[in-house]
Every structure is written in structure tokens, then in C-alpha cells.
Amino acid sequence: MSGTIARTAQATAAMALALGIVPLAFAQQAAPSGNPTQIAAGAAAFAQNCAVCHGKDLTDGQFAPALRGGAFLSKWGGATAAKIDQYIRTSMPPANAGGLDPETYTAITAYILQRNGAAVGGEPLVTGSPKFAQITLPAAPAAAAPFAELGIGGITKRPLPAWPTPPDRFANYTPVTEQMLDDPAPENWLSWRRSHQGQGFSPLKQIDTHNVKDLRVAWSYPLPAGEDTNEPLVRDGVLYIFGYGDEIFAFDATDGRLLWRYRRSLPKGIMLSSKKMMALYGDKIYAATSDLHLIALDARTGRPVWDKLVTDKPGFRNPGGPLAAKGVIMQGLTTQAPGGGLIAGFDAETGAHLWTFDTVAAPGTPGGDTWNGLAANERSGASVWTSGSYDPETGLAYWGTAQTYDTGPLRIRKPGANNDGLYTDSTLALEPRTGKLVWYFQHMKNDQYDLDWVFDRVLGTIDVGGKTRRVIMTSGKEGLFDTLDLNTGKYVKTVDMGLQNFITRIDPVTGDKTVDPALLPGRDRTRFICPHSGGGRNWTPTAFDQASRTIFVTARDVCMDMVPAEGKGFLSSGVNIDYAPPAKGDGRYGLLQALDMQAGKIRWAHRQRAPYTMGVLATAGGLLFTGSVDRQFIAYDQATGKELWRQGTSDVPNASPISYSVNGKQYIAMVTGHGNPLSGGLGKLTPEIEMPAVNSSAITVFALPD
Question: What's the CATH number where 68 sits?
């Protein structure tokens, strides 16, 4: 919506007519409603700036909802001109909210009111005038009662019994602050893995190892059918979740009462994907969308506040989600296109783009001469498809990156060259306000196995050399957990899950990993490599108990035959990948482990036939919760790995379970909905485990009986 209305009545009317927009008053009424000059100017401005999303007739847009008709009036019926005008000024257009001159906004408001049959009158509307606060949209047409044609289903005119009004969960809403995200109140789950530290640990302990057997469903709600890997967020009795097809829901966290629902209108042909996480910050909730946008919604109403395109480069996807810190919303993208992945930063309040960090270093830049002589447009990878962590003391955001599928050009180092391939398989420490790279650590140089390190970054403390040290802990699909100094990125140590067979040595000072040259993939013969490129450990996040310094992690104990391919192959070194059981495996592919990060050893391991498909929730009640591909949601004893409780579900459990409390009652929430690669199972390795014939999705919440 740009331009001014400082034009003649004839010119504005002519523009509107030329654009095919005939004001309703002129077309259908003998006595026009609305000032002709203002309505014509509003029509022209709408056509220029709004019609591309909402449609030139206000009802036929493919990118945004209708602005007239029953659906629109069911939400906005009775709203004043002042309320509508305020909404438009603060939200539209998404890429330039509030950026137009005041007269144009008023004209557009008048046009929308008039097209919906509001009694606008013949004088120009003036923002802030008493009349502006009195004009209202008409109410939506009354919906016919169910079965009205049969003479039943109407409502009596007799008095109805009184009934308590549900609580207003937003009545005392206060902005989400940095301090809340750093250390949330016990009852809340404010960000991915609960807090900035990424630990996935709840301090709630009402549900414990003794009473977990009594858990039962408190409420459940169906979500749009399809893949769903989203980890819900909870703030003061409100649960937020992202549904397939780019819908966001807010529920009363005690009973599943729907508080609001946002539905995004996506361009035709967009490939839908679930989003692993959202972010709460201030009075907004932030989410990534399938059309590569980052959006901010009012957390109390679901109203769009701003909407920004992350990149217009082709070949990107947006399956992860944002990290909020220091007034910045950061978002990573994934791609196999030339040039590699990226992380971008946007101002939390305005959506202004602040910076973009390219995760594949360009020639001549720091780290840029590590691609075996490849030109910039021949490099790819380092995708980002999970969110980062943030530390308030260092002021740094920590992100992980993936490998490159184009492994062929990096396979053998050219004389005098470097083929590490930065910044693939790395931890990046970035300044949120500037995107400046402060330090990096490459966990696996020249990854030829598709065993990326793009997963959660857990912040905590362990004792090193008799001193307490603040560290960051993460692993790749290999199941090797590297520990780094939080301030500098200096290598501390590695804890091995015992899954991999191709790394023969880890340098105790640098953390560099030596690969068995006999197991380097190639076209000459098949190599047997553990784990499989689908994990091993994969994107399903860990949980960390700071008190015991233990990481709990799910994995798939399955290997791969890297088979010579005709043509390029799955990896461009000329190999395809087949599932294979471990050499001494017993058919139990699902692995849950407790890793003592202080002592550097495995505390215990639990194995089962069905691979795990969820991340891990740890609680102060001594419990672990996770789920598996056989549609089972399970609780374990944190100390021993003993199974304590299980519940069958309608579809495959995904994402990670969370815990929260409302009015002193603790809840456990989990999400189902298969479609991601992990939830597809292992196929012929476990032929008796079949995917549900009907793809469905839901959120289910458990609690102890009252």
C-alpha cells in the first residue's frame, strides 16, 4: 500500500476503473455509500498493494484470507473502523508494515468497510474522529441451525441456564523477557528444549517414578493430517503448536479449548513441511513457513504483526525454526543448491532484516580456502535445520551445520589444497545483533558419510581438571558427543556412544578425527559403515540433567552398505546407501542411552526392536519420556533405564515431549504425525512394524488423576 491520495477525484476513479475495481456503492446502490474520491483512492491503493495476496475482489487471493464475506465477517463483524484501521496500519503490507502515508491507510479502510456493506456515509472518513470510532462492520450472516431443513436443531427463546465463563488465559499476559528464556519458571516451556540452554529438562516432579503408572489422557486435539515434528511451547496456561500445512494453534493447556488458530495461505506448488520449533519473545510468537518466510504473530490473538521473506534464492527449505535472543529472531535454512545454507537475523519488533551468514565459506574469506579449489558456485551443503542455543554470559548464539551431499570433489585432497569443507559439520558461535562469527569448531572434516552435526547444542557445566567449566555439548549421527569450551570453542573431550566403526582415533588436544582409509567410500567396492547415514543419533534432541551431568539420547543402532552406484549416486563420490544390521546385532535397533558427560562413559543403555522416533524429555521426578515407530509413548526410570509405563498412540510419536504445569497440576504433552524420514522406520529390517494406513496427527496431553 503505497502512494498518496493527493490526486483528483477523476484520476483516482479512473485508476480504480482501469484496474477493474468498481466500488460496490457505484455498482449496486442508487445512493452511494462512502465518499467517491476516498473510496476510489482506497480501491486503487488496494489493487496496487493488497490484491496480489487478497485478490482483486477481496475474496479470491491465493496468499491471504478473504477481506469480505461470511468468513471475514465472522471474525471482524461488529469491529469499528478505528480497530480495522489500526490493524492495517500496524500489520500491512507485511514487508512494509506501517510504511505508507496515513491518508492511504484511511482510504483502504474506507474501501474495505464499504465493500462489506458498512454505513460509511458520504463524507470522507478521518482517522481518529468520533465517527471513525462509531462506524462498524455488519455482523456475519446467521448460520443455519443444524438440520434446520428437517425442522429440528433450532434454539429456544426461553432463558438458558447460566454457565461459568472459561478463564481468560491472556488476561494478565506480560511480555516474554530474555531472563525468562534463560531460566523459565518451572511451570513453563518457553522455547525449543525449554530454555536458551537447550537442556530439555523440566524441574517439575509431581509425576515421578512411583506414580507414573497412573498417567492417563487429560485431553487430546486433532491437528492437520500430515507430518508433525513440532515441539509445543507453553506459557502461563497457554499451549502453542505448529500444525502441518502452516497452521498455528493456541490452546488452553488444561483442557485443550481452542483459543485461536492461524492459517497461512501458501502459494500454489509449495512443498509443505513440518517445523521443528517456534519461538516466544515479547508479546509475539515467531514461526518459519513453508514458503521461506519468517512470521511474527500476536501471542494473545494470533494476529499477524510482520511477515518477512528469509531469502529469494531458489532451492531452499525451511524445516527448522527460529531462535530468539537479544531482540533478534534468527532462522536457519537448508539446501542442496550451489552456495550452501544460511542463517539470517531479523529485528524482533519490526522484522527488519539485520544480517545473513552464509554457512559455506566463500573463496578468500576466513575458512573459504578449504574446498579443494572449488569455485563458490560449485560448493554446497552446511544446511541448518534445527534451531540454536544462546548463552547470556557470552552473548553468543550457537548453531550447528550439516554436511555436503556433493562429496565427490572433496574426496581426495588435491596437492597443496585443503578439503575440510568449512563450515560443514561445525558449531558456529555468532553475535545475535550482527551475525558476526566469533568462533567455530569443525567436528568432522570432509564428511564423506552424510553423518551431519546439525543437532541441538546443549549448554551446561562439567568439571575439567578439577575446575568447573562452562561447556557446549553436541554430536553428529556418528554418536560421538564433543564437548567444547563455551567461551572459546576450544575442544575439551569426546564421549562415544559406541555406534561407529570408521573413526580410528580422536586427537585428545584438537578433537580431530582420523578416518580408517580402508573405509573411505568409493566406486571400487562396497564398504560396511556404522552407523547408517540416517543415524545413529539423529535430529531428535537429547535431554541433559545438570545435577548428574548426564545426557539422555535416542538413536537407531543400524549400519549401512555404501554400494558403488551407476552415475553420480546418492553421494557424489559414487555410492548409494543400503540399510544393514550391525555385525553382531540381535535385531533390536532402538537405543536409549544415558551418557555420563563428567566421567565420559555410558551409564546404561536400553534396547528394543522398534527404533525411537522422538527426542527425550527428562524431569526432576526421575523420569524420561520418549516414543518409537511402533506407536508407543514410553516412560523410563532416569537412574536405570527401566521401563515404567507405556501408552499406545494413533500415529507415530514425533518431535519431543514436554512437561508443564497449570494451577499446580503437572502435564506431559506429546505430538504424533508420521512423514519425516525417522518416522518411516527401517522397512525390511523390521517388516512387522507397519506405518498407519491413515496419516493423522494430534497433540495428546497426559496427567495424573485428580
Answer: 1.10.760.10
